[in-house]
Write the structure tokens for this entry.
Amino acid sequence: MKKIVATLFAFAFVGLAAAQTTYVFDQPHTSANFRAFHLGTGYTYGRFDEYEGTLVYDEENIANSSFEFYINVESVNTNNEQRDGHLRSPDFFNAAQFPTIEFISTSINETDEENIFEVTGDLTIHGVTNEVTTMVEKTGENTNPQGSPIIGFLTEFTIDRTDYDMTNLLQAAGPMIDITFSFEGIAQD
Amino acid sequence: MDGFIIRSIGLGVLLPAVLAGVIALFGRAKLGAWAGAIGVTVGFVAGYIGVQGMPPFVPRTVPELLPALAVVGLLWAYVERFWLHSSTLTWLLRLVPLALLELFLYFRIFSGRITARFNPWTTGDIILNLAVPAVTVALLWVFLALALPPAAKAAATDASNDAENDNPENYTENNNAENNNAPKRSLAVLVTVLIVLCSGVAVSLVLAGSAIVAQIVGALTAALGAVMVLAWFAPAPYVSLTAAPVIALVLGNALSLGGFFAATLPWYVAILLAVTALFLYVGHNRPFVMRLAVQLGGTAVLAAISAFIAFRTH
């Protein structure tokens, strides 16, 4: 009897695992952009050029999905070398001490809208972790030229940088930072 | 930006200068030589709070470490309130606990880099990144160790033959400053050299890209500046120099931790600024005017070169 129960559990587990697909972010088709309001006048845009992440996606039971994303702070790029150096300094990101921005999901839920998911997770910036909830849109699914399944998502949300102990020069760059994150994942065998 | 500049000048410069000056000037009678260390520390911490807000009790970032180190320096100064009797050797021996403190701070703050997900430090990186700050702080400390005891001893000998003057606190209280201004002012040269050095560090830091760390060093410079003015115009031996442990800890760490690590200050600029402290010692046995020219001139030239390199490489 014990063997039968164990076998059933094993099949159930295999079935559960089979429903999940792991996607690794495709760097050339992923972007993490942000914008800050400069001197109360106009928006300055920037992005991070180096990141990695994985999505475990369960289409049948979305709550079984999970998402991790890591950004190399040193790779900040606002198209101005001097400003990038300033952003890496203790005035802003303090990249020497806090080299990574990370987001690790804690729950993913379906919403009333098709292909829109509510993702909650822990966002760590500048060594401070806060819970963030954002709506994530699945933008498409396809197969890349190499024959691997790919999947795309997009999310936009706003954070208050003072929540992350980034309180310097608020007059120069406002506290509210708009983030746009778009990624493509390539399914792993 | 107007608010930033007004706050930088008002709270980051004037406040620390006034507080340090008042405490050092009026505290001499009650506190003796230790008034200098208290004045600089209180002025600096007040300036830090003015521009950065109240730091957490346990420092989390490099800038937050600096006021904590100022308090450590003050306690150090208190323990060593008779430090003027110390020899160069005993000063150097104190590098051991200082080195342990520095290593603890570095590992606490930068351990994340060793295991970082992106570009983790290699063994070579670890050695370089530990060696540069250690060398920077050690150089500053060694030059202070070389410069302060003989300078203070010479001033004490020159200023008075009164045996009581061996005790700096009695000296401050018992001597008529007006009659002994020349030898006392010779001590002011050391503080002036430190001021030029602090200014060079602040300018290099701001040119290297960290307005905040520069602003914090600016508060230290302002506090020390008030004590320097006092050292020139209302001289009292030792009052200005007891702040040495505070200066060594805050300036050395601002330069190495805040500068080298975090503000992309090139490592050779950090070393050059630390080496500039050599002018605290060079020419210390020369006549007053010659010493002033050599020490101030040398410091100013090297500080200007450092600032220029910081500007060009950023």
